[in-house]
Automatic annotation (TrEMBL):
It comes from the Bacteria. Its EC number is 2.4.1.227. InterPro entries: GlcNAc_MurG, Glyco_trans_28_C, GlycoTrans_28_N. This is UDP-N-acetylglucosamine--N-acetylmuramyl-(pentapeptide) pyrophosphoryl-undecaprenol N-acetylglucosamine transferase.
Length: 355
């Protein structure tokens, strides 16, 4: 196919791994499209996107403030961000937009409406974000990470697709860590940015877990000033780890926040988890995300305020001594996996762009 014959798509996804990796997974399925990316300066997209797709950044502070105050609406003054997206759409003859919710979706959807092109929005959480709820009416289809989220969109076309994960999750990935086959591996993570409160809990209990022979890989994020406080030969820390597929495939279990991205990956890799939902997530959505995994028996979930290091210490020791229980929980996690989520969204986009 000649380069100029490719359809042109804009992906508006910004901020956290939970918003970016599902969008990158969809982009991986659209190799026959010219893809432009819309983000903001100084967020994760500036690291993850430019090597693969041209990135345009918007200053959306004004929009963030309006959404935080609940004042955005159909009549709101069109800010410069929207004009910039309209220009981008016109200049590049963009035929459709894919967005994963969050602030960046607002100017993208408004601009798409002005230009008369279709938008597919994906929202991965059990309680969809405010922007998704407000602007869904202007989208061609709302793709959902959790089937229960459908009730927020009584008048829109919705489809439950789970959440796309990177292609690497769909095949076995080698892990570059010195681990014997029989060594239990605990992976600790706090979403794409790390979780300082979880990190503290782990450091206060890790020693007893390591004494059983287990290895811990702890993804700490980049903002924890006490990251070097605990050290042990079986304890590995990384601020951010690229090969999540390899790590979760090998993990016996995870201790994690309950972001939708990580939960979906745990389902695909069949990894049981001790979940500690982020207590300040919008509308407490992580607690609701976690519920689905708890209900099928794939995870246990503790509110951070109620979880003492003593309870966590005992739970982990019990899990380390219960391989049969872990493999049963792993199988239950797999019942929540949707392996073709990215393909389903790519198909929706192809249909929307061609009609
Ligand atoms: C604090 C907060 O509000 N977080 C939200 C954010 O996701 P946030 O990015 O915090 O968390 P998620 O669990 O959704 O996604 C994390 C992603 O980063 C990847 N990862 C993480 C650590 C690492 O070292 N390497 C790596 O690749 C994970 O594999 C996963 O793909 O958006 C999600 C989707 O709307 C929400 O469900 C989360 O509640």
């Amino acid at each position: 196919m000649r380069e100029e014959a490719k359809p042109n798509l804009l992906i508006a996804a910004s901020g956290t791994g939970g918003h970016l990796f599902p969008a990158l997974a969809v982009a991986e399925e659209l190799g026959d499209y010219n893809i432009q990316w819309l983000g903001v300066p100084n967020r994760l997209e500036t690291k993850l996107v430019p090597s693969s797709y041209p990135l345009t950044t918007l200053n959306i502070e004004g929009i963030k403030k309006r959404i935080a105050l609940g004042t955005i609406g159909v009549s709101f003054r069109i800010p410069p961000a929207v004009s910039k997206v309209v220009n981008l759409i016109k200049k590049n003859q963009i035929q459709g937009i894919f967005t994963t919710g969050g602030y960046i979706s607002a100017p993208a959807i408004i601009a798409a409406r002005i230009c008369g092109i279709p938008v597919i929005i994906h929202d991965s959480n059990a309680i969809p974000g405010k922007v998704t709820r407000w602007f869904a009416r202007w989208c061609h289809t709302v793709a959902l990470g959790f089937p229960t989220a459908e009730k927020y969109f009584p008048r829109q076309r919705t489809i439950w697709v789970s959440t796309p994960v990177r292609k690497a999750f769909h095949s076995p990935q080698p892990l570059d860590l010195p681990l014997k086959e029989e060594t239990p591996l605990i992976v600790v993570l706090g979403g794409s940015q790390g979780a300082v409160a979880v990190n503290q809990l782990i450091r206060s209990s890790a020693k007893v877990w390591l004494e059983t022979g287990a290895v811990i890989v702890h993804l700490t994020g980049e903002r924890d000033p006490e990251v070097d406080r605990f050290q042990h030969p079986q304890y590995y820390t990384f601020p951010f780890y690229e090969n999540m597929a390899g790590l979760l495939q090998r993990a016996n279990f995870a201790i994690s926040r309950a972001g939708a991205g990580t939960l979906t990956e745990l389902a695909i890799t069949g990894t049981p988890a001790i979940l500690i939902p982020y207590p300040y997530a919008a509308e407490d959505h992580q607690t609701y995300n976690a519920q689905t995994f708890v209900e099928v028996g794939a995870a246990v979930s503790y509110p951070q305020q109620e979880l003492t290091s003593d309870t966590l210490e005992k739970t982990v020791l019990q899990w380390l001594a219960s391989p049969k229980m872990l493999s049963e929980m792993g199988e239950k996690a797999k019942t929540l996996a949707v392996n073709d989520s990215a393909i389903q969204i790519a198909t929706l986009l192809r249909q929307a762009v061609s009609t």
